[in-house]
Structures are given as C-alpha cells and as structure tokens.
Design goal:
Blueprint (H helix, E strand, L loop, with lengths): L3 E5 L2 H10 L2 E2 L3 E3 L2 E8 L2 E7 L4 H15 L5 E9 L9 E9 L21 E2 L2 H9 L6 E8 L6 H10 L3 E5 L2 H10 L4 E9 L6 H19 L7
Parallel strand pairs: 1-5, 1-6, 6-11, 7-9, 9-10
Antiparallel strand pairs: 2-4, 3-4, 4-5, 6-10, 7-8, 7-11
Helix pairs in contact: 1-6, 2-5
C-alpha cells in the first residue's frame, strides 16, 4: 500500500522525484521495471520507471498494481509535447482525459481514438486533478486532453493529430496506456505532464528541455503533501 503510484518513462523524469523526496527507499527491479518507495512529508509515493511506449507503460502499471494493491491512485508523470496553438514550453498539463492516438476502429462504429470495448477516452479523476491544481507549486498549470501514441510527434505528424484530435493539447507515449490499465482496475488516474517541446521538426528541443520539464511536473505532484483528495 502507498498513497500514490507515480509512473514515468525515463530515468531523466524520475531524477527530480529522487532529488526532492524527503526519503528514498532501495530500488526493486521487476520485469525491468524500476520501483522505489519515496516519502514527501507524510505522503508515501511509489516511483515507477517503466520505459517508453504504450506496451512498456501498461506492463509497468500492471506490475505496480500487483505490488501495491487497488487502493492507490495512478499518476502518469514526466514530459510531453505541446500540441495546441497556445502551448508553451514549461507549462504543466493536468489531464482532463487521455486518448489513444493510434486507435482507429471506425469501420466498426467506434470513435477515432477508441480501442474496441473501451471508452472513447479515459476521464481523469476530478478530485485528484483539483488537488493538484490547488497545490502550492509555483508552476504554470492548465487542464487539457492528452493524447498518446507510439510515435514521437514532430511537426508533420503534429499537423495531422491537430486535425484528427482538435481537443488534444499535449502528446506523450505512455499516459493513455496507464489510464487504460487504471480503468480496467477501477483505479483513480490523472496525467501530469510538463511541456518540453512544441513538436518541432526534430528531437533537439525535447532533449534540451526534458530535465526541466520533468522537474516542473514533479513540483506539481510533490505539492500534494498535506492535501486530502
């Protein structure tokens, strides 16, 4: 049991949690997934480093649930690409919902982005989202839809996604998979992703800002200490 399961894809996204935590437990590795127990004030956090992509994310979330049980909310944390016209590098997006950018079963009557048998998107937990917004974290925060797929989104792909998913404000490669696992287990879920890049033609902008973006997302989540949600 832990108060919160926070899942990131990369070591760079995990490091700010390790730096800001009041205490850090020993690392466990299960199925190549890294797990550490952290403490922020009175709140315990399980930090899961699951790897990049939808399959790795679902794998790691399932391992975390098996370890910590069904009472701990899941948070997808780290960096994201800014997709909307008003996105800014450094702002933090708290998901209203997440959608699968790769799913297309419209031939059978499903919505674009809907995996057959699943909802059209996965709604974030409202109370958890409100608590994150209310935290004393000093970051620029907005709510919005986050889309996830198996491709790193650069300029050409971003244009197509904007046309197909006009409500999506940020993109990553993990959140919807974690959200789907949470949905199947009736767990509360939210994504907290800081904008590291604006879907530029190459990955240079992402590499420049990923560490700073991860720190901003961490500050928002760490602000949950002392807040009842």
């Amino acid at each position: 049991m832990t108060d919160l399961i926070v899942q990131v894809a990369m070591a760079e996204e995990a490091q700010p949690f390790l730096d800001l935590a009041d205490s850090v437990g020993d690392e466990s590795v299960i199925g190549r997934v890294s797990i550490r127990d952290l403490r922020f004030g009175e709140r315990t956090v399980a930090l899961v480093v699951g790897g990049i992509g939808l399959v790795n994310a679902a794998h790691a979330a399932t391992i975390a649930i098996a370890r910590y049980g069904l009472d701990s909310p899941l948070v997808s944390a780290g960096s994201a690409g800014g997709l909307s016209a008003d996105s800014r590098v450094g702002e933090v997006v708290i998901s209203t919902n997440t959608v699968n950018l790769d799913a297309d079963a419209r031939t059978f009557g499903y919505a674009l982005g809907q995996v057959p048998g699943m909802p059209a998107n996965f709604t974030a937990d409202a109370a958890l989202s409100d608590a994150l917004l209310a935290g004393n974290h000093g970051q620029t925060v907005r709510r919005g839809s986050i889309g996830s797929g198996e491709k790193f989104v650069t300029a050409d792909l971003a244009h197509a996604i904007r046309q197909d998913f006009p409500d999506v404000v940020a993109v990553d490669m993990e959140s919807v998979a974690i959200a789907q696992v949470a949905y199947r287990h009736s767990l509360r879920f939210v994504a907290v992703r800081a904008i590291s890049d604006l879907c530029a033609p190459d990955g240079e902008e992402f590499l420049t800002h990923v560490d700073d973006a991860a720190l901003r997302a961490t500050r928002v989540i760490a602000s949950l200490r002392g807040i009842e949600f």
